Recover the amino acids of this structure.
């Protein structure tokens, strides 16, 4: 081999080593990159009139703002520099009464951030006072819990969770005690045939009708729903799978439509006292803290689709169902997630949709019995670290602003607190229930107490009335009187502040 060739090979090897070193250093530099992005805002809330908003970003990486295709908004990039970028988000006027939203994604080098674009609907044709009138009509409500919603081994069974069959006496007692409404949760597991008909067992549907008749004869409003069929995404009403699999989603929608067609058809001649509620506490098993938080809004959108199927199916049956009030729940019936993500369905009827939420804050006190006291007067070591009176007012105030002030009625389909075994702990329980119900009245909502029929004390023991006889359990008569008074007493001196001031 000549010296010339050796020299050439040496230079080639030297250059290759340089490249490897250079690339290696570059790769190391790339690996150590840390995006730094500061945003002027992370959400964009438009009125129904629309308009434009500016997103300003201070950044060390080039950014791109993306969102799902839609004809009601647009995104444009403004002039930028190495350290600053701008994006203009423009929303057209919303002529619908329904709100709408889109999840935007801001992308850059090693960077992704979700941003929310929301727009309210056009003001409804009726006023906030009419939403308040609906709440007044519903009054103080009560849940026939752990009854027709009870189930075991995949089949609904009225008495399987310890309650005896409900009777007319129960409903009469409720009316006598001052309750105005009853919610009758219904689980349909094991009572529905195969696709495509999804025929509902006639005996089970007739039993539901019998309880609706009990309510009507007692002069009570009634709400029926599809309840534990969607529990934790364990059964057919499975939002966890439906949100990621179009075939599952379509199967759910087909069954939902078929079932509500049958249920609504059964009651098409019933008057306005009867309300249909589409579903109950729909979630993926995470109770609002699961995949819904990072799935780009898929579960929220899926639930909005299901609610639309429900409305369409009910309205198509005609009769009084063409104008019947319909209850629409948000994700897991969480007030905050409902506020943030519920899109009311389109409805051929005018102003006949109600928003359904549940309120058990703080659940470690109300449901789990881990604490014996609640509120501003409670000892710090005997109460939960959130959910005091200020929290109640914050959440209820948001519901009022989002819905009630726009003429959309809201009812608290479930609320309550378990029975305690000591007089001192019961004093705080009474205060909690009075405060929640008085706050509901103050902010324009109707609350429904969750009664599971249990006469015990502690976790999951919220019974105040025997479901078979109508007799009060424990201090149930006192509890009923406290809640009914909070909803119905119009004495100007009986304010939320007055309730606050007499805390234990």
């Amino acid at each position: 081999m000549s010296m010339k060739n050796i020299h050439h090979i040496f230079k080639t090897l030297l250059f290759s080593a340089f490249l490897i070193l250079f690339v290696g250093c570059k790769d190391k530099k790339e690996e150590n990159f840390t995006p730094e992005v500061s945003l002027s805002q992370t959400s964009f809330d438009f009125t129904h009139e629309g308009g434009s908003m500016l997103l300003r970003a201070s950044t060390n990486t080039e950014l791109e703002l993306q969102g799902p295709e839609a004809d009601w908004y647009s995104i444009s990039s403004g002039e930028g520099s190495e350290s600053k970028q701008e994006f203009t988000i423009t929303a057209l006027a919303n002529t619908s009464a329904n709100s709408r939203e889109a999840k935007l994604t801001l992308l850059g080098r090693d960077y992704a951030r979700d941003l929310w674009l929301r727009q309210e609907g056009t003001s409804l044709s009726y006023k906030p006072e009419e939403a308040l009138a609906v709440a007044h009509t519903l009054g103080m409500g009560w849940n026939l819990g752990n009854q027709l919603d009870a189930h075991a081994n995949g089949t609904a069974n009225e008495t399987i969770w310890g309650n005896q069959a409900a009777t007319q006496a129960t409903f009469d007692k409720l009316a006598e005690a001052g309750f105005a409404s009853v919610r009758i949760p219904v689980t349909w597991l094991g009572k529905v045939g195969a696709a495509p008909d999804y025929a509902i067992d006639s005996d089970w549907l007739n039993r539901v009708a019998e309880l609706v008749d009990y309510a009507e004869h007692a002069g009570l409003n009634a709400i029926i729903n599809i309840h534990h069929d969607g529990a934790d995404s364990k059964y057919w009403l499975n939002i966890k799978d439906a949100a990621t699999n179009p075939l599952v989603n379509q199967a759910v929608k087909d069954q939902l439509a078929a079932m509500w067609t049958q249920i609504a058809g059964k009651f098409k001649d019933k008057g306005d006292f009867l309300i249909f509620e589409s579903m109950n506490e729909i979630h993926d098993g995470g109770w609002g803290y699961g995949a819904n938080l990072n799935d780009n809004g898929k579960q929220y959108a899926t639930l909005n689709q299901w609610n639309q199927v429900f409305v369409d199916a009910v309205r198509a049956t005609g009769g009084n169902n063409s104008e019947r009030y319909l209850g629409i729940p948000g994700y897991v019936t969480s007030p905050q997630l409902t506020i943030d993500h519920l899109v009311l369905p389109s409805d051929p009827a005018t102003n006949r949709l109600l928003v359904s939420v549940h309120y058990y804050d703080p659940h470690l006190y109300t449901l789990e019995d881990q604490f014996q006291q609640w509120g501003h007067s409670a000892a710090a070591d005997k109460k939960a670290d959130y959910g005091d009176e200020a929290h109640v007012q914050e959440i209820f105030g948001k519901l009022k602003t989002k819905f009630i002030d726009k003429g959309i009625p809201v009812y608290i389909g479930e609320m309550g607190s378990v029975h305690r075994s000591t007089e001192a702990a019961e004093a705080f329980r009474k205060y909690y229930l009075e405060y929640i119900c008085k706050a509901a009245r103050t902010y324009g909502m109707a609350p429904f107490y969750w009664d599971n029929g249990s006469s015990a004390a502690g976790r999951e023991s919220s019974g105040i009335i025997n479901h078979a006889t109508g007799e009060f359990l424990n201090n149930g008569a006192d509890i009923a009187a406290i809640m009914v008074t909070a909803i119905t007493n119009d004495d100007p001196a009986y304010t939320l502040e007055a309730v606050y001031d007499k805390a234990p």
In short: The longest helix spans residues 3-31. The chain has two domains: 37-119, 128-501.
